[in-house]
Amino acid sequence: MFRTAAARLAPLAVAVLVAATALPASAEVADPAPIGPHQYFYGFVNGQTGHTIIKMACYGPVFPGQTGHPFPGQTVEVRPVAISSSSASIGYTGSGGGPIAVDMGDPSTVARALVLRYYGVKAEIPATATLPCYGSGKVTFTPVADSWTARQATVLVDYVGQP
Questions:
Q1: Burial of 50 (0-12, 13-18, 19+ CB in 10 A)
Q2: What are the residues facing 141 on neighbouring strands?
Q3: Helix H or strand E encompassing 18
Q4: Average pLDDT, stretch 38-64?
Q5: SS3 of 5, please?
Q6: What single DSSP character describes residue 112?
Q7: Does residue 61 surpass a pLDDT of 60?
């Protein structure tokens, strides 16, 4: 009788275990949604909204003012915020809504700026961008549509050259 009860409960235990481990992973996934008007948003650099690192392909000792290129595989994205906040890192699309331009602070990439059109879709930081080999900076996420109510989001970054 014990074997029969255990045999009946085993599939249930496996199903509960699978559901419990899959739930946290699915909670992190955001469906791509178009960026529209009157929406608050966060900017993300390498998955972080706060102070983060951009790894630079600068080797050996660096000197003041030295620039280089970021390693491939680093990303930026925007995600919606459910409620408004006075935090400086939260942006607002304003009445114009629509795409959000990402400014890495590299004047050579102005013509080919990153433009994000959907929430939850990562864009790779161009490995051709010219950025400082070390030091601090900021990445700004600015609504493209011209609206006096729009507000940019900012993420502080540290540029770190590799030894």
A1: exposed
A2: 102, 153
A3: helix 2-27
A4: 92
A5: helix
A6: T
A7: yes
